[in-house]
Design a protein that fits this description.
Layout (H helix, E strand, L loop, with lengths): L12 E4 L28 E6 L3 E18 L11 E5 L7 E5 L8 E17 L5 E5 L1 E8 L8 E4 L30 E20 L8 E4 L2 E5 L7 E18 L6 E7 L26 E11 L1 H11 L2 E2 L5 H11 L6 E14 L30 E6 L4 E5 L4 E7 L7 E9 L1 H11 L2 E2 L5 H8 L7 E13 L23 E6 L2 E6 L4 E8 L16 H17 L6 E6 L2 E6 L4
Parallel strand pairs: 17-26, 20-23
Antiparallel strand pairs: 1-3, 2-7, 3-6, 3-8, 4-5, 4-6, 9-10, 10-13, 10-14, 11-12, 11-13, 15-26, 16-26, 17-23, 17-24, 18-19, 18-23, 20-21, 20-22, 24-25, 27-28
Protein name: C-type lectin domain-containing protein
GO molecular function: metal ion binding
Keywords: Calcium, Disulfide bond, Metal-binding
Length: 578
Amino acid sequence: MTLPPVNVAPRGIATQSAQPASAETAPSKAIDENPGPEAPRDTCASVPLQDNPWWQLDLRSIYRISNVSITSDCCSENLTGAEIHIGLRNDTKNQRCAIIYIADGQQQYNYNCGIMEGRFIHVVLPGLQKTLTICEVQVYGTVLDNVALRGVAFQSSSKLTGYEASKVIDGQPFSTCSITEDKPSQWVMVDLLVPYNVTVIQLAYSQDCCYSSDVRVDKTSCMVIPSSSQSLVTLDCGGIVGRYVTVIHPDIPPPLCEVEVYSTWENPQNTYPQQLPPSDYCLFDSCSRDYILIRNEPKSWFKAQTYCRERFTDLATISNANDMNRVVDKMNNDFNDFWIGLYQGNLTWRWSLSDEGYYGDGEAEFRNWGVGEPNAESGIQHCAGIQHTGEWRDLDCDLPNYFLCFDGRNGTLETKILVETAMNWTDARRYCMVYHTDLLSIRNPAENNEIQSMVPVEKLAWIGLFEDSWKWSDGNYSSFRYWSQGLVDSLGESPKCAYVSDRKWSVRSCDTKSMFLCYYFKKRSVVRINADFDMSDPVIQQQILSQLEAEMKKKGISDFKISWRMSGRVSHKEDSTN
């Protein structure tokens, strides 16, 4: 399925090097999608006479730009020789895409820029005492994938509820912000989960200010933000390889609203059919799992499991980075040790792609092993690959093979990609997570037949199936893990369970007593009250609300909303969102 190209220029903000002579020649006239054949001068942007005049378009996001179209319905002498520049800089020194040469009788000029990545488009007319006139600018390209949206965010401190670290990776750069305490040397960090080749970082602040913040990729400084920066700051990091992006504020920090991270890379072309995602695919924003930390009753893992099942749903399942961000927000930087619902059991085969909504009934258990497979060879880590015959093999994960990636980001059409570069299973999965979504899962015979046709003859390609001993208490199939680096299994034969310590997951004996994290599903409950007294009395209403609130808090739940309806009227009290 090929979508028609979209002109993204109207999404941006246009400015120019000098004030226009009137509102009719304002810079925005060049992106109003009205070239104006009837009255061309009324729909053109014009920069009055000056040296080296320029017109600028700020797209406000980082785009991969392929084509630029310039229309000149009048005044060709005011455009000939102009240069089109595209890049990350907020000046005219970005890379040049084209030079405009006017031809008699021609009004529109189309330029193929190859693949240029940037936020700013400049049209510059070099020379002394020139007037620049542009009637319409069209820009065609796609927004680059912001890989920070897949990560987990932390901050050095929290000042206000509702302004936690996860706000900097929620995809809403101008409406939600992270706020730390009003003291120097505060920081916000985004863990990208795997190392990326970081080329661009964009930061959105709540206001223009003097930042001088140090932005680092792992321990390497990308840039110290210049003082008197604008609220939207774009930094060219030049391809620093790293997993952690940290913004350090030496002085009192302003609210930081978004951290965007871009890893520009030419992905292999997909030549295979695309399919729509299932109708029940779970978008994280609509999922209703929430968490509660039981602090004052330390228990062993198994007793904590019983407690959570009796009072809530179960010990906490953390299925993905979004769930981990919810946990981080709940902890409010208080990361003392606590149990989660992960424990070590018998070895089983599972898929690396952990999104529950991706699999229909029984699809996570679909297998198409060849004769004698899986072979259960001891002493190796087991991963699965598919042959060109469609049969699966059980192999040593360290062997280099081609591999199949799945791309289903942001609710777009599902895409399957064969990467014909041999890697071991772990590196192949890391590649798929960086540039797509994950290694490919195969859910049914029809899908297996489709994938079979993608594998070259006499070759084998890794898929997302691997053997794992770690299981979630509630039976969830998620393969998401957030282990501390250098995790060592030194517990012998004792039962092993996972706990959170200093933001990462570690392993210890399940018999250890600790705080623990339960989860539950937010739901709407209706309670009918029959009473002889006057329910419209504000005093009675307040007494009932107070009793209900006390009962909810007694159960350890603080995130709730109580409302009631009576005789067509509704009274309500909100403590937090439902």
